[in-house]
Give the backbone structure.
Amino acid sequence: MSAASCPEPTPAERARSVLAAADSLTVTTHGHRVELIGLHTVDAAARLLLNNPPDGHLAAELAMAPRGDLTALVEYTDVAPVAVRERVRARLTLGGPLTVLGPKALVFRPARAVLTENGRTAVIGLDELAHSSPDPLATHEAEMLARLDAAHADTVAPLARLLPAKQQLGACEVRPLRLDRHGLVLRSQTPDSHHDTRLPFATAATHPGDAVRQIHILLARATARPRRRRLPTRS
C-alpha cells in the first residue's frame, strides 16, 4: 500500500485524541499563564472542565471580568512516550471563552482549534471538532508503545523489515512513534535525520486487544520477508 493511500486519523480526530490522552495543559489569559496537571476533563462536545487551580489566579481574574468570562488560549503538547529525536509529535492550541461553572470549577468552550504536526498546520472548525471522536487507542497508546519498545528485539526489529529499503539500510535505530486504530508508525533514525513510516493495519482496530492482533499480523508479514541487515538493538 502506498503512503498516499494509507488511512490515518483526520486532524479533528487527532485533536480529539490529544485532548483525551493529555493529563496536562497550559491556560493563558490576559493576566496569567497557568500550568494545570491532572485538573481537567473533556466532555463529548470538546468542552474542557477545569478544576479551579489551587493558586486561584484564574478564578480571581474571572471575578473581575466585566462580562463574567475571559478570552483564553489552552495549549497541549503531545510528546512521544518513547525516547526518539524530536519527541514533540504535535501541538494543539484552542481559543475561546473561559467562564465559572461552579465554586470549584471553570469551563472552557473552544471556538477555534489549531493542530500543528509533521510540519503542517490545520485549522479545525468547532463543529468538526465537536462531532469527531478520539481514537479508540488514544488513552492506551502510551502504554502500548512503551511495551513495544521494551520488547524491541521481538517486535520493532522484525517490523522494521516492512520499512522501505532506503529507511532500512540507512537507519541506525528504529523506534515506535505512534499507534492508532489505522496502524503503527515507526521512526527510522540516522545520525542526523529521521523518517516516519506508517505500517497500516489490515483492518481498523476498535480496541487495544484488536490492535495487538493487527500488530501480530504485521509481524507475520515482516518475518516472512528476508532480512536486509541487522538493525541495531535498543540500548
Remarks:
- The helical segments are 11-21, 57-64, 126-131, 141-150, 156-159, 165-170, 208-223.
- The two ends are 32 Å apart (CA to CA).
- The longest helix spans residues 208-223.
